[in-house]
Amino acid sequence: MKNKEQDLNENQQEEQLVDEQSAGAENNSQSNNEEQEAENPVKKLEADVAEMKDKYLRLYSDFENFRKRNAKERLELIKTASEDVLRELLPVLDDFERALKASENEEDALKVREGNQLIFHKFSRILESKGLKPMEDLIGKPFDADTQEAITQIPAPTEEMKGKVIDVVEKGYTLGEKVVRFAKVVTGA
Question: What's the pTM value of the predicted model, to 2 decimals?
Answer without folding.
Answer: 0.53
